[in-house]
Design goal:
- It is built from 19 helices and 14 strands.
- With 584 residues, the protein is α/β, with parallel strands linked by helices.
- It has a domain of 322 residues: ABC transporter type 1, transmembrane domain (ABC transporter transmembrane region fold).
- The strands form four sheets. Strands 8-11-12-5-13-14 form a six-stranded mixed β-sheet. A four-stranded antiparallel β-sheet has the order 4-3-6-7, with no helix packed on it. Strands 1-2 form a two-stranded antiparallel ribbon.
- A hairpin with a 2-residue loop joins strand 1 and strand 2.
- The longest helix is centred in the middle third of the chain and has 53 residues.
- The structure holds adenosine-5'-triphosphate.
Length: 584
């Protein structure tokens, strides 16, 4: 999702029109309001002209006619205000609703996007698209609706009225129109590219700030603050530069068209005066005409302003559509797992994140129901990757993985994942109360079951010490709980759901030794009869495993239980002696 496959402006406009289809009725209503607003607005100069003609000279005023005209004028002004207000309300509804829906669609797509897309893209940039770009899009669209409709209609209406008053002068005005349009188009074409660049740089900057803030403690620990500041400065300069250029191009549009329009206005004045001298037009007629000439110029200014705003909006919409239109993961529902025994087989599995760097190749493994598998190996050896394949965060590129004989690609991911309980090194808690977090895994659990699960995982003690116990409100990453406490909550959550298979990735790494021993007991009970994969670094877990997989460079180099592998005196034995025996 890089700039390489940026969508063309015309494609984005088409795409926006597709989104707008749902609002057909509102758009028609808005157009009717725009037409009425314009008609009422354009009536005012006609009435002004007529009023002038009622005042022929000093003491020669036709009061009756003048009063009637003033009444009509008041009506026209009230009509303009009312229909403009109604149009603005409808336009507000359309734009904020469409933006809300686009945000929703983008967010929903993020939830079903292949994890590889999320992993390989900056998270801050995604955030910038959904938050800032959506706002810019809605602002531009609102301006487009409000000013473009009325602008175009005012131009057409003005031409109509001008032709009625005096054809020759109207022709002068119309003949000069393309100059104004050409100037606006010339400047606008340069503005889109600049706004696109600005949105891209904004995304990069948000991504960087997000990364630094999220890892603030690590940044400080490595004294990276100065370097971070410098790098941020570079991004900031780049954004300021593209913003300046975008604003510069957009800002010259209006003055340029204004200049051209002033020329038109003077042309009308001179031509009208000459015509009036020769009796071709009344003074009131010329007054109306000059009124139209200035009204005629105004929408051109507005439209040129709107065009640049719209281009900015389209540039931002393109970035949101890139998310909305990105392919979702393909789901198969050919099979469904209900009661699971837990036999897992890897058949000649191959996988790599990057096709040019092979990782897992020819992996064969059979896990009997209820067995405990410990995966060990040096860092980067592929332990987490194995879990990623098992949970279908990534799909195998060759071979297959089956559960009770069913290929995991033939069932939905949701069905697969509900059969596994995971406790990872990285904890994930959602914003809400402790109770909501625990019941998240099993909303039907009773209060007793919840407390029991918390007791078994030894989370109950610390929850009770919190100011509001189970009703204490926590924020996902607010740091009010220690890493160990967060892990205890995750374990309690898992204990409440008790799925048929488990994945533990160094689940107890942040918990003190005493608590860990207690948790191990709870884990033992939980693992009883459940096929369990443990990415293990602890001797106790490894020693009690039914099968130990020793992995290196994506390959399973040794398989067997602790005793067998020690007797083999290979990689595992070496690891055991270096890490555990010496460490003891
Ligand atoms: N999302 C990813 N995209 C590209 N490469 C990745 C990705 N995740 C992991 N890798 C690479 O794949 C290899 C195996 O990584 P994996 O995370 O499976 O190792 P691991 O054994 O779990 O390591 P550790 O013990 O450090 O957690 C590593 O070389 C790693 O750099």
């Amino acid at each position: 999702m890089s700039t390489k496959n940026e969508i063309k402006q015309s494609q984005v406009i088409k795409r926006v029109l597709v989104e707008l289809k749902t609002y057909r009725l509102q758009i028609v209503l808005s157009l009717i309001c725009a037409v009425l607003t314009v008609i009422f607005t354009l009536l005012v100069p006609v009435l002004t002209g007529k009023a002038v003609d009622c005042m022929i000279g000093s003491g020669q005023i036709q009061w009756d006619g003048l009063y009637q005209i003033l009444e009509k004028m008041a009506l026209a002004i009230v009509g303009t205000c009312f229909f403009q207000w109604l149009m603005n309300r409808i336009n507000n509804y359309i734009t904020y609703d469409i933006t809300k829906n686009m945000r929703q669609k983008a967010f929903e797509k993020m939830l079903v996007m292949p994890i590889k897309n999320i992993d390989s893209h900056s998270h801050g940039d995604y955030m910038s698209r959904i938050a800032t770009d959506a706002d810019v899009f809605s602002d531009g669209l609102l301006m487009g609706f409000t000013q473009l409709f009325t602008g175009v209609l005012t131009i057409l209406g003005t031409i109509f009225f001008m032709v009625r008053v005096s054809l020759p002068i109207a022709l002068v005005v119309i003949a000069l129109t393309p100059v104004s349009l050409l100037v606006a188009k010339f400047v606008a074409s340069r503005t889109y590219a600049m706004f696109q660049l600005q949105a891209k740089h904004r995304g990069e900057q948000t991504a960087y700030a997000d990364e630094m803030i999220e890892n603030q403690s690590v940044v400080s620990a490595f004294s990276y603050n100065e370097k971070a500041k410098e790098e941020f400065d570079v991004l900031n300069d780049r954004l300021a530069d593209s913003s300046f250029k975008a604003t510069f191009y957009s800002s010259i549009t209006n003055p340029t068209t204004r200049f051209v329009n002033s020329l038109i206005y003077s042309g009308v004045g001179v031509a009208g005066a000459i015509l009036a001298i020769f009796g071709g037009i009344t003074v009131g007629g010329l007054t109306s005409f000059l009124g139209y000439a200035s009204q005629y110029a105004k929408p051109f200014n507005e439209i040129s302003g709107v065009v640049t705003e719209l281009q900015n909006a389209i540039a931002c919409a393109a970035r949101i559509f890139e998310i909305i239109d990105a392919p979702a993961v393909e789901e198969s529902r050919e099979n469904h797992l209900s009661d699971v025994e837990g036999k897992i087989v890897f058949e000649d599995v191959a996988f790599s994140y990057d096709p040019s760097k092979p990782l897992i190749e020819h992996l064969n493994l059979t896990v009997e129901p209820g067995q405990r598998i410990a995966i060990v190996g040096p860092t980067g050896s592929g332990k987490t990757t194995l879990i990623n394949l098992l949970m279908r965060f990534y799909d195998t590129t060759h071979g297959k993985i089956t559960i009770d004989g069913v290929d995991i690609r033939s069932i939905s991911r949701a069905n697969l994942r509900e059969k596994f309980g995971m406790v990872l090194q990285e904890t994930w808690l959602k914003e809400g109360t402790i109770r909501e977090n625990l019941l998240f895994a099993n909303p039907d659990a009773t209060e007793e079951e919840m407390v029991q699960a918390a007791r078994t995982s030894h989370a109950h003690e610390f929850i009770k010490r919190l100011p509001n116990g189970y009703d204490t409100y926590i924020k996902g990453d607010d740091g009010s709980l220690s890493q160990g406490e967060k892990q205890l909550l995750c374990i309690a959550r898992l204990m409440l759901a008790l799925p048929p298979m488990l994945i533990l990735d160094e689940a107890t790494s942040s918990i003190d030794t005493r608590t860990e021993m207690k948790i191990q007991e709870a884990f033992q009970t939980m693992m009883e009869g459940r096929t369990t994969f443990v990415v293990a670094h602890r001797l106790s877990t490894i020693r009690e495993a039914d099968v130990i997989l020793y992995m290196q460079d994506g390959k399973v180099l040794e398989q067997g239980n602790h005793q067998e592998l020690l007797e083999k005196n290979g990689y595992y034995a070496k690891l055991y002696r270096s890490q555990f025996v010496c460490g003891k």
